Structures
1.
Amino acid sequence: MAGRQSDSASDSFEVHFRKLMNEIHSASSPNAIMVGLKNKILKVYDVEMATIFLVDAKKQQLVSWVLLPGESLRKIRMSIRRDSIVGFVADTRKTLNISNVYDDDELKRVHPTLGFDRNWDKKGGCRTKQVLSTPIVHQNNLLGVIQLINKNSGADFDTVDESRIHELSETLGIALFNHYKTGKKIPLRYEELVRREIISGQEMERAMVIATQQEKDVETVLMENFLVDKAELGEALAVVYQTRFMDLKKGLHSFEKLFPTGDIEIFKRNLILPLEKKQDTLFLAAKDPVNQSDIPALKKSYGVLHSKIYLAFGDDIREVLAKYDTSENVEDENMLAGGEGGDKEVPEAIEIEVNSSPAIQLVNKLIEDAYYAGASDIHIEPYGDAQDSEVRYRIDGQCNEILRIPKDNVISVVSRIKVLADLDISVKRKPQDGKIKFTTTRADNIELRVATIPTSGGNEDVVIRVLADSKPLPLKDITPPRIFDRMTEVIIRPHGLFLVVGPTGSGKTTTLHSALHYINTPEKKIWTAEDPVEITQYRLRQVQVKPNIGYTFATAMRAFLRADPDIIMIGEMRDKETAGMAIEASLTGHMVFSTLHTNSAAETIVRLIDMGLDPFNFSDALVGILAQRLVRTLCEECKEAYTPSQKEFDHYVESYGILFYDHIQTHYSDSLTLFRSNGCEKCNNSGYKGRAGLFELLIANQKVKDMIIDKATSEEIKQEAINNGMTVLLQEGIQLIFDGKTDLKQVMTTCN
């Protein structure tokens, strides 16, 4: 009998503990965790008192709120020292289980300076006996201390209690770290209220804490406690969701005409109501117009193709549901919607607010994992109801499947990304572009470029470019010595046109910024126009062009020429106007850098002439063209040494050409060692990790300039450049093979 009671108690704890975890992760702020959830912790852990202390790192103190008899809520501070229980726990990061805090001998056995301030009991009118206290730590960051006082049963805390408080501590650590990581105290949903000065930021935080304590919607607290006008509140919140506010209390809709058709459980689960059906569109009202994964099912049940969702307040929706719901579980469902929860598990519909939720956790994980895996892009590819969505990372130029998102949840994930990128979540039938600034759990700041693209079946793909490193790389580190020496002779010239060319994703911007970094000195005034600004440098004056408002590369060029430049960098020559202005600027005493999407250095010249540029001016302006590719490199941890056959060696000699022995300076022998891919955990068993550049540098000598005027073919220009010392991409790739950096397969894949 006792065993069954123990199992029952354990099961009951697990049920209530899971609810508490959900409450912690959905809390609106650290204050809401510290204050609003205290009563729930008391119930779950069956103790008289519980206190959460948060670390104030600047003052090396622990901060909490206590409610003393006859007083209002008051903030207290404790030093992180070993003379108090919470201070000792914070300083040592160890759990303390004290049977009797009034037993000085027990305290001294822990540490000679450890004591208990009995004034707290005098002020609170209570008697502390047992204390169980543990640090809140996440990824080696001390975030606070959780302390439980006096079990209601009167018994001492045991090892089971210690295990349970550790679970609580881990959950608190994750939730608090997520709040601090975002740097936001106020969820995105309510930022508009502060921006419009409807309520102050401090009042907004208080409202969220009160809502958590009283288990009410924040909107209800704002209207009842802070006297915010309902219409004004609704209008401001609706702006966040790019929709309209519907006041359901005004009785403008006949819900009874639509309720029999839809599934009442979907309405209750998602806090959503059908308002009207017009032709092939269903109009709805929801507390959260974005978090609606059941919309496809609703559209199907109502026989419509489209839906439009407006914003309404949660309590208003519950009131309507209570009126038309004939089931016996309305009260439990209302509690579930209001925040207390029930034993009924909420389907994995994903919240879009800044508060912690499955969508937020998944999006954060996707971004962070991609960054630390060295991915350049994240592809999220939905397939509608047909199958789960696929997520792929592009790592070292190749896409790899990482995971799948359940088809019912992908809409929430996509919407979460759109909210972070400040995109219109209601627009799904045309492409959008945006940016996200993201801080990882290791405190690395990265920037993301987001593109959403409508795809067949009403789906919406998302591609996220990870702009991982915002600092330029030293030019000497990314170019081989032969290229570096010849290139630096050209880019230090006082005027001229230097181009970096290649396909998308070949590293042109990185090389261009490395070149600018090499010549970036206090004597030089450098202006750049980019789309977007991916890499930043001190002393560069960088401009983000915005073609949608008419601020194009050409417009930026005109502005730069009036701003006393020495060097100008134009992100891309997209049209004849921009190219013509770049040439004009280089001829009037400026050094101009830019990029172009062409396959080789010689082809670039023909392409620009075909664009309609004046060959005479172009030949005068051009000083050099660097074509480049990125080739995957062998994993240093697992690459395998081998001796190539004579046939393989001869193939390299033939492919490289007559200068093989002059440049590679290697002859065949039985001791010749090359390397090939193998595969290990470090490279995800691919055999490759990282990429290196392949370059061909065309220097515009007088012979090349004459050929430009004569409109020679690209092959003729290429041959002259080779005679002048240019090595082509394939030759540079073979050099990397003999340097032990890559293999023939990767070189041929990249150069063909």
2.
Amino acid sequence: MRQNDPIPAIEEAHARHLATLPFEDERDFEDADRGFLGTLRDPVIRDADGKVVWDASTYDFIEGEAPTSVHPSLWRQSTLVARHGLFEVVEGLYQVRGLDLSVMSLIEGDTGVIVVDPLISKETAAAALELYREHRGDRPVTGMIYTHAHLDHFGGALGIVSAEEATERALPIIVPEALVGHAVAENVYAGTAMARRAGYMYGAALARGPRGQVGAGLGQTTSTGHPGIVVPTHEVTATGEKVTVDGVELEFQMAPGTEAPAEFHFLVPRYAALCMAENVTHNLHNLLTLRGALVRDPNLWAHYLTEAIELFGERADVMFASHHWPTWGRARLIEYIAIQRDLYKYLHDQTLRMLNKGMTGAEIAETMTLPPDLEKVWGTHGYYGSVSHNVKAIYQRYMGWFDGNPARLWPHPPQALAERYVAAIGGVDRVVELARGAYDAGDLRWAATLLDHAVFSAPDHAAARGLYADTLEQLAYGSENGTWRNFYLSGATELREGTFGTPTATAAPDLVVQLSPEQIFDAIAITVDGPAAWDLDLAMDVSLVDLDRTFRVTLRHGVLVAEEEAAGGRDVPLALGLTKVRLLGLVAGDLDSPGIAVTGDITVLRRFLEVLDPGDPDFEIVLP
């Protein structure tokens, strides 16, 4: 694929950053290298079919001085997160870093090892565990902890232990309250759209290299193996709760509604080690992730960080987290938690101050500047979240999508708006001409805006698409934020080569099977094509024979409703008896395989299935 040199405006900006940012501070490099024990002999991890799901060597190019095609601050962060292998945090506590987006931690107990946050894919998790055992012996897994409800912290669980073995051994699997419900809802309900956008955000399909993907700030990218979940056995529900696993006492602090809707921190007194999950990392995190999610609460986030200092600060000598490298020393870790607390609180409070003066989210984002004492700390920089999109998220949390200007209450949708703008400007060729002038002048944001309208008005216009791809590429070169860079490069790639689809499927079979019946019916309801079902009035009973539960399912006014019923309820034209797993197969379109007991009119079921409209994992993003 053709790639351009950075334009002078980008190179000049990078030179300014090199002159003004604190590159002399190299403590992060010392911490990231501390305790290194070794890495994989073969950096390539494959699934059972031989498909590569992770290749750590693809980041070997990240060394030395930053090329002009990468923001020097992002290059520094990418250099740190590209380090891979097994690291000793303290004797008895270890981390595997650089084998997935997230970090897997391992706490040694009296007889075995407790695994914390087993990555995204079972293949990467299994490789991480094997690497640990190579250096620490073949210790059995005696427990697992999922710190929060995001896929990169539980998805690889089946690479650590099978569901059957976990049940047979009564393996303790500890999670914050309501984790499973939040996890499956996020990965299934809006999972198709989120996963497609995550392909842009993490750049898993992009070529690696100085002009390609260099990481995502929080880690390199997402593995592309097989995610699943081993069902938790214990939910922590209250701050101060203590649980002992394999002789190791764990003391928990609940932190719901922060980086994840279900999340906790915990202290390991045996090792004087504090796990801060994903609420204290070495970057500014997201308040609204670019893949899509509920807006997080920075005020609550700050509160829980203050509480963590009060609860654990004087009892911890090292802090580790679900991403990045640890922080050693009591004074240092307390100071760093406080800096992160002040970071989120400052963004929250100052956004609200300006919001109450009538400023919109976009205006506040352009105005917001961090205090110099925060800005000089590398871990406050927006490699993953950003000041810009976090401020807009805070505005959205309090005020919604509408900024109060009546002209913006009912705008045309993007394609119709683009057609009108292009016509008003004088046609697509004139728009491209103006965009070329903006590009040459280094006004890339304006060029991108013009070209967005151009391609939404005329998707096949070669000059518009070509210049738009070039513009996004330059924006990528200039971005300090890893996920912004990946979004820009993904857009450029799809403009030049077509859609790359969804590299990592979040709604994987091993995860979907953990849906409750209510969640399954909710997921089905989301796929009903409402207008196609307006005139239908259907009802059937669905008995899940393995769970001894029966649901009355109706479809009226384009709305599917499932209500649990006692046996022997009102008559309906169709009754089905099947297992939960067979129901999932049925919803996926398998009507013919055995395992369904049918009583009544099967055409009712066929009419149900005819109006289901599943999501499209290849939908367009940068084109209409």
3.
Amino acid sequence: MESQQEYKFKVIGTRPIRHDGVDKVTGRAKYGADISLPGMLHGKVLRSPHAHARIKSIDVSAALALPGVKAVITGQELPELAPGIYQMGEIPINPQYLSRNIMARDKVLYNGHAVAAVAATSPHVAEDALALIKVEYEVLPHVLDVRKAMADEAPILLPDLRTSGTLEKSDKPTNVASQLRFARGDLAAGFKAADVVVEREFNTSMVHQGYIEPHNAVAQYNEDGHSTVWVSTQGQFSVRELCAQILKMPSSNIKVVPDEIGGGFGGKTTVYLEPLALLLSKKTGKPVKLVMSRSEVLRATGPTSGSYIRCKLGATKDGTITAAEIWMAYEAGAFPGSPVGAGCMTALGPYVVDNLQIDGFDVVLNKPKTCAYRAPGATNAALGVETVIDELAEKLGIDPLEIRRINGSQEGTAQPAGPKFLRIGCLETLEAAKSSAHYKSPLPKPDGKPVGRGVASGFWFNAGLQSSAAVSINSDGTANVVTGSPDIGGSRASCAMIAAEVLGLTAEEVHPVVADTESIGHTDVTGGSRVTFATGYAVYEAAQEAVRKLKQRAATLWKVKEEDVAYQDGVVSCVNNGQEPMTLKQLASKLVHAGGPVSGQASVNPRGVGPCFATHIVDVEVDPETGKVEILRYTAVQDVGKAVHPSYVEGQIQGGTAQGIGWALNEEYYYDESGTMRNSGFLDYRMPTCLDLPMIETILVEVPNPGHPLGIRGVGEVPIVPPPAAIANAIYRAVGVRMTELPMSPPKLCKAMAEKNAKK
């Protein structure tokens, strides 16, 4: 294929109907909870009512005596594992901690922590059995605030935990799992050179991904030691590896079948129910299904971190940022592993800063273990940096987009972590935002309430990782594409379109399939905005291999050398002997006479990942009496590399923006003084609906990624990064109050406005 600059795409950039659409809109698609097997039992999990307590005893005898109950398991039946780190795609996993999170051993560490599980003939019997399990607890002091958890006098969650990443090693128990620092230049000199310095503190709440489909698992353990798991997951290979480690089973004995997935956003990249379903199936000899309730999803699966951040920036009169000092502590939940590292890597990504120091702390506390959530860690960090930059612009009298352009990252700029950017589109998003119809328009004034316009930028580094794909040619000249990437954002369509582009077919003539762990080579999780980039790369290579074989088959038929055969737009032709060209359909019907079927396979681990930048513009109206914020207009500008399917790119941007708006204005985990979550349902955990949002406008900027043959960058994560900061800046422009705590809910905004008026 020609280079991405020269090649004229025929399929890529068009908007075909997605291949899985009909099954989903007609209800034929099978999700995890739809799986039903002969003789299947139903499982339920008993969860802790306490935030922190020692388990003194568990009596399951009454539950086992209940008719219909076939098995009960506790944490004592899971193998004890040695501590260690296992790299699962973009997320490092400690199997010992993961096992303890799946089911508590000697202590429960958060409200909702699993304590026991039951398998019975119906979900109702299983539910009744849970009420018969007697657990004796010794309630312990708990800690829910990240700074209090770091204090010397804080209750210790994990007695064996020591801080990693420090030069001075201590044997003292701690809740600080790790710390890291990025630093360069001369911080003191940078701040001394500044004409204006702004420093603020920020607090963000723990929030959930809010996927509609709850976690589920169906497991069948066979007498020969082999087993099958059906599950809605972002990574069937990760489920296989983690179950193998947690249960000490050979990974090759576990087959994982990925069902359709009703949302994940990073929250379905690990395991909760799968090992329990396997263990219950092994114990009963029957298949076992487990499905969480919404309350269980919110109380006991991985939200993203709340955080405390201090951000200090200095700039000269012309707007040049001279120094940046950022201190961030992120909630890991009950076990180590917050995304604070990603927060440190992304905080200053859109900007050239020669003098900086970024400190990050990973802190455990009595809340559920966090998990990835769309650009994990970056939204928290951007709230601090982007609102302080807005304040710098105000004090210096510079347009907020212009100060970002003055300091904007470009090719050759050093990232906070050190490596220099290759070709990126940061400045292009700023220019597109500045020239947009939205930014040029006057502020709307619908009913006389205060209105304001805010902007913010965001950065996400994206991931590559490992992917496998297979492309096979059917006898009618169509093709199949088999990958190992669960489709959560239209990646079946994008992979089919990549194959169609190479093969000279239409998108509809390519049939994409997401395969189980025994039907395709290893593929890392659907996460990190990696699928269309990395799995698409594997599809591209596999399709190129299929083209090479098609040329070989044509050469055999024509009795010419392979180098004398050309393939272009789905047609094979002979360069120099006058043979009549053949379409792929004609050639496919003759493969049996020319060497046999044609397929191509590829496994890749691409390194040319293209980072992603976005700039958002938002207009808000604030009700000064109630503190309610109305989003009047929203525009998201993003460098998307090359939009394979523009509709799904726009959908990713709109979806991430909507989630960022929810995070900004309403969403939060609310715990009472006892450490019990009080809003564990969608009625009280307030996510935005279509009634809360305008039509989100998108502007796609295409700066091709030089590390991909088609110029592709991941697009799914950076849209969630700018919204809270952009909305905070808009609120300030409307009512003159700098909001530094998420969510900026009506009570918090009312309080801030009242405090401002009292100072007047």
